Amino acid sequence: MSDAASDIFAALAHPTRRQILQDLKDGEMAAGEIAARFDASGPTISRHLGVLRQAGLVTERRDANRILYSLVGERLALSVGDFLSTVCPEQIVLREVRKRRPAARGKSAPVES
Description:
Helices cover about 65% and strands about 10% of the residues. With about 110 residues, it is of the alpha+beta class.
């Protein structure tokens, strides 16, 4: 596994970091907002954010005295998808089958009069 993939899976290993990613799915959040959602100390959350940033799963920007974090969802999706494609190649086929099923279910049989 590449170093980047190792960084991503190491970042995903901790439940607090996974929760941070889930919290960021709806948009940018300030570091203080993120920290307020957890019982852990500010420095602990800061370390978690650093691991996520190092893995490329979040970005940060400064706005005056605040640090705002955003999810880099495409990096997460591509990395996990690449790994799954390698380990479980049939998942690609299954995903295509699942995409087609709802369309097939949506079709109704012709009504006879």
